[in-house]
Specification:
This protein has about 200 residues and is an alpha/beta fold. It has helices at about 15-25, 30-40, 45-55, 65-70, 75-100, 135-140, 150-155, 160-165, 180-195, and strands at about 5-10, 30, 60, 60-65, 105-110, 125-130, 170-175. It has 2 domains: about 1-30 and about 105-190, Rossmann fold, CATH 3.40.50; about 40-100, no CATH class. It is built from 9 helices and 7 strands. Strand 3 (about 60) and strand 4 (about 60-65) form a beta hairpin. The chain starts with a strand and ends in a 5-residue tail after the last helix.
Length: about 200
């Protein structure tokens, strides 16, 4: 039976780096963010619906994510409307991914808002990527176009790191070296993907 590992973590915790490490170890990875980018990119399935709901947030390159974020981050109802478009499309892609990899001993679902949006019930185990607060803040504020106000807005929508760690089956630290992080990833794979002893 395939073990489904949900991989999550707050903004700036190093989740994308950890997801790549699982992939490099041969574990099939479903990247929810990458799917959203595809759905919102040039000729993406959701572009027309998003433009209809939020006029002026798309162009010939697809959805202008900065403009869309500015429109929805401060308005819970607008964010809910956007999620109503995105979540069913991502769920459909996730089902197709799981069907394609039904024979794998372990698959990873990289889902940023796993706890916040009730996704924990769809996975067998949860791994949370975590780094110390100052490291997280430094990483996020180094991103192009990021401001302290925007960072605070995003954090307000996410479960606190401490709570995520408390609810996780595994915590993957990313505040140290890449080798330490990779060792933890390999330890989790060995734990979950190995056949049980008879």
């Amino acid at each position: 039976m395939t073990v489904i590992l949900g991989l999550t973590g707050s903004i700036g915790m190093g989740k994308s780096t950890v997801a790549r490490m699982f992939e490099e170890e041969g574990v099939p990875l479903f990247d929810a963010d990458a799917v959203v980018h595809q759905l919102q990119g040039p000729e993406g399935e959701l572009v027309a619906a998003i433009e209809a709901r939020f006029p002026g947030t798309t162009d010939d390159k697809g959805v202008n994510r900065t403009a869309l974020a500015e429109r929805v981050l401060a308005e819970p109802e607008a964010l809910q409307n956007l999620e109503g478009l995105i979540h069913p499309a991502v769920a459909r892609e996730r089902r197709a991914f799981l069907a394609r990899h039904g024979e794998a001993p372990l698959v990873v679902l990289d889902i940023p808002l796993l706890f916040e949006k009730g996704g924990a019930g769809q996975v067998n185990k949860v791994a949370v990527v975590s780094a110390p607060g100052p490291v997280q803040r430094e990483r996020v504020l180094a991103r192009p176009g990021m401001t302290l106000a925007k960072f605070c807005q995003i954090l307000a929508l996410q479960l606190p790191d401490e709570e995520k760690r408390a609810r996780a089956d595994f915590v993957i630290p990313t505040g140290g070296s890449l080798d330490e992080t990779r060792a933890k990833v390999r330890e989790i794979i060995a734990c979950l993907a190995s056949p049980p002893n008879p």
